[in-house]
Amino acid sequence: MGKLRIANNIRRLRFDAAEMTQKDLAEIVGVTRQTIVAIENAKYSPTLELAFLIARAFGKPLDQVFTVDPDT
Amino acid sequence: MTFEERNNLVGILCGAIMITVYVWRITALHGAGVFDGHDGLMLWARETLWLIGYGIGLVIVATILFSIFYAIVTNDPKPNMVVDERDRMISIWGQRVTIAVMSVFFVAALFALAFGWSAFAVFNIMLAGFAFGDMAGNLTKLGLYRFWA
User: Fold this and answer.
1) What digits encode the pLDDT tens for the residues A20-64?
2) Cβ separation of B3 and A32 shorter than 8 Å?
3) Model confidence over B49-108: pLDDT tens digits?
4) Residues paired with A12 in a beta bridge
5) pLDDT at site A1
6) Of A4, A11, B12, B56, whose CB count within 10 A is highest?
7) Is the Cβ pair B145, A34 closer than 8 Å?
């Protein structure tokens, strides 16, 4: 089974949420800012628990925050 | 820089200092013939235990001082102390490298024993395995923190 690439809309969602900073989001979900940076850059795929926490922080369902890159 | 990344940096610096001090001290004592007698291994073990104790003390003091220094440099009186899932993932990768290096040194120590090297040399090879394994693990973690973001 090939590895799926997980894309995300976190940067846009932060912008839509009154330009929430990475640090603000990190504090809301209880991780470091560096982890948010890594997730935004698609360098790190969060656990399901953290993914749900991020989605909840934006008040969105999971599939509006994280998507599977169709090219993978 | 995250809390765990700062701790990692302190670990690398302290590890380098302790390896240098250990090699310098043990080489000097070995050169003076301190470990040549029938109680040589006992003296070596005592010396090593003291150095391990100093090493633990050094890490504690360095961690506190580095935290204060970091807070002053970044002008942040309450630096972040969060440890998250990415830190734990990086820690696991570091541990894998540490165990791999330790295993290589352990096998090298077995070979040394098999080829008639002294117990003193074999114990030192194993100790070097712990020290360099820890260092390699910490350097791996540092690399992941710097480039996995």
Assistant:
1) 999 999 999 999 999 999 999 988 999 999 999 999 999 999 999
2) yes
3) 999 999 999 999 999 999 999 889 888 877 778 899 999 999 999 999 999 999 999 999
4) none
5) 61
6) B12
7) yes
- pLDDT value, residue A55: 96
Q: Do B149 and A31 touch (CB under 8 A)?
A: no
Residues of A within 8 A of B3 (CB-CB) are 32
For residue B82 the two structure tokens come to 């969060």
To 5 degrees, how large is the angle CA B10–CA B21–CA B65? 30
| Contact status, residue B58 vs residue B14, Cβ threshold 8 Å | yes
| Alpha-carbon B91 to chain mean position | 15
Q: How far apart are CA A2 and CA B142, in angstroms?
A: 29
Q: 0.80 cut: is pTM over it?
A: yes
Q: What is the pLDDT of residues A21-30, one digit of tens each?
A: 999 999 999 9
